[in-house]
Amino acid sequence: MTESHSVHLVLTTGVTMEPVLLWLRRDLRIGDNPALAAAVKTGRPIIPVFIRPKPDEIGGASAWWRGCSLAALRDGLRKRGSDLVLRTGDPLAILAGLVAETGAVEVHFNRTLEPEAMKTDIAVLASMPKHGAIALDHPANRLHEPWRLKTATGGSFKVFTPFWRRLCEAYRPPPALPAPRKLRAPKTWPHGETLDAWQITARWSKCFGKEWMPGEAGAERRLARLLGTVEEYDRTRDRPDWEGTSRMSPHLAWGEISVHEIWRRLIEQHGETALPFLRQLGWRDFNSHLLYHFPKLPKEAWSAKFRGFPFLPHGKGLAAWQRGLTGYPIVDAGMRQLWATGWMHNRVRMIAASFLIKDQLIHWRRGEAWFWNTLVDADLAQNAGNWQWVAGSGADAAPYFRIFNPITQSRKFDPDGAYIRRWVPELAKLDAKAIHAPWEAVPRDLAAAGVVLGRDYPQPILDHDAARKRALAAYERIR
Asked: Are 346 and 390 spatial neighbours (Cβ–Cβ below 8 Å)?
């Protein structure tokens, strides 16, 4: 990839200037946006453009978020005298066509770190001069460039702790890039598609708006809350019954806020007490690092010995897991939260993923595909890296013998059962002792709570202890 460049031009009053294109992807913000800042620095009119690929491979929940985020971005651009051009198709062909149509002399964009998108970036950089424009790429919304951060022997990192140590040594947040008050518009705007045609209006996603505020303002609101709670983060983040996490992930996934801005403000206000949260930003970078150096991460086990793991046909167990009907309340609560809100608490994500992979021996790619479709924060590197971490097949993965017990995890992290009561309301009247494993409750307690197992709530689809032994035997065979 090339380094960022800036072009300085002397403006002459009354002279019409050719515009520059600002190609936006997962960087839907105006503030602290390197490509936008570089485009503004040229002094030329700017044409912001967002291109929806065809085929469009993002999931339904992400498509909902993208539509809302683009609407917010468009409003922000219009307030500054600009607008947003929407197109669908091959990015290379569309950018070349826009250069020809508008006479644009530069194309500015922020890099991506996903394998297929990087190929497009490279093609754009190479081909734009043939069409009469220069393409200039700028840093992705990550703390580090994965080709720059290396081990002592010059290789890529495979374990998080040394990666995090080296990142902390090397990283210094760049200067903030303030949001411009005004943006110079072109004399005429190229045609674009309507955002209404892109919006997801399925009944499934209608409730998302009650939970989320996509866009730059929503990201700022989340950051403001985090600034007031980050010193409690390490104590509260594992409790799904509390509002102890940042919920910044979808805003970061769509680039509605700069990761550098988060780092700067947390360090300025809280210093090292913010490190437990900043470490999560480091884990996000670690997964991007892995994907860059191992492009097959979303499709293939990072650890070669796991490529022959004896997964089972998914059968009815996958559907029960997807619908939140496994009979294990903490798993079902998480899967129902995911369906209703497009998000799941991180601790519960690990429990639910472990249950699918290790209790049911269903391939992690089945779970990753479901999360890809239902998460508003779906991100290729994070999805693949985290699912492989749980499976034991990834870099710095959870040991193969770490199999989350959904009952003990539930009792530890949702001790009063408040999270379960919210998302599995048919169990709401059970007490804190019975709600984590209702099949162990005495009949009179179930009757008093109005619960008939197998009618109101399913019996467990498997026995965890037996499933654990089966998983350990399967892992032993591939060692």
From this structure: no
* DSSP at 40: H
**Closest-CA residue to 73 (of 215, 195, 258):** 215
The CATH architecture to which 20-140 belongs is 3-Layer(aba) Sandwich (3.40)
Domain residue spans of the chain: 20-140, 141-175+215-293, 304-478
Q: Say which DSSP state 180 is in.
A: P
Of 452, 460, 414, give the one whose Cα is nearest residue 433.
414
Residues 6+ apart with CB under 8 A from 453: 438, 439, 446, 459
Give the pairing type, strands 106-110 and 20-24. Answer: parallel
- Measured in degrees and rounded to the nearest 5, phi and psi for residue 17 equal -110, 145
Give me the residue label for tokens 């220069």: 134
Interval 32-62: pLDDT, tens: 999 999 999 999 999 999 999 998 889 999 9
Q: Which amino acid is at 68?
A: C
Q: For the stretch 132-151, what's the b/e string if a residue is b when 16 or more beta carbons lie within 10 angstroms of its beta carbon? A: ebebbbbbbbbbbbbeebee
CATH top class, domain 304-478: mainly alpha
Q: What is the pTM of this model?
A: 0.94
CATH of domain 141-175+215-293: 1.25.40.80
| pLDDT tens digits, one per residue of 79-121 | 999 999 999 999 999 999 999 999 999 999 999 999 999 999 9
